[in-house]
Amino acid sequence: MTEAMNPELSIFSVDTLLKYMGNDDKALTIVSKIVRDACAPGMAPFEQAGAALREERLTDANKIFHSLRGSIGALGAKRLVAASLALEKSIAERQHDAIPALFAALESEYQLVLRDADAWLKGNALPGI
After folding, report:
1. Is 2 contained in some domain?
2. PTM Phosphohistidine: at which residues (predicted)?
3. pTM of the shown model
């Protein structure tokens, strides 16, 4: 089992973020905006990174993954963070054979985050948001 698939790591959880922000309606409004903004690009980062990898622009691909890890990692996406770190390391070390499988694993984790974030937004939206 890879670290990215470790069931003890979370796919998506903003509970801690909400708690630190006061766990009230104002916090919920702010966190909802953070979640929407972080997930707004959808699959575009993967399309861009995939193109960079195909064109052997490894530094560009790593920058995209690093940025994605930062924005989505703030949403408690520990499995995504682990998968991204593994892929970024393989890219940096030019382990070309490992990159396709790690890319697929990270893409899968990202899709799970988007799914869970969407479900969270639908279940926690305040009226008028």
Report:
1. no
2. 66
3. 0.86
The answer to whether position 109 is within a domain reads yes
H or E element, residue 109: helix 99-124
**Is it the case that residue 8 has pLDDT exceeding 90?**
no
Residue 32 lies inside a defined structural domain of this protein: yes
Count of structural domains, the chain: 1
Containing structural domain, residue 115: 10-124
Residue 41: Cβ within 10 Å count = 16
Give which of 86, 119, 89 is closest to 104, Cα–Cα: 86
Do 106 and 84 meet the contact criterion of CB atoms below 8 Å apart? Answer: yes
pLDDT at residue 120 is higher than 70? yes
Asked whether the beta carbons of 99 and 53 are under 8 A apart, the reply is yes
Q: Among all chains, which residue has been given the structure tokens 């409004």?
A: 29
Mind listing the pLDDT tens digit for each residue in 34-73? 999 999 999 999 999 999 999 999 999 999 999 999 999 8
CA 37 vs CA 9, 24, 53, 65, 73: distances in Å: 23, 20, 25, 17, 13
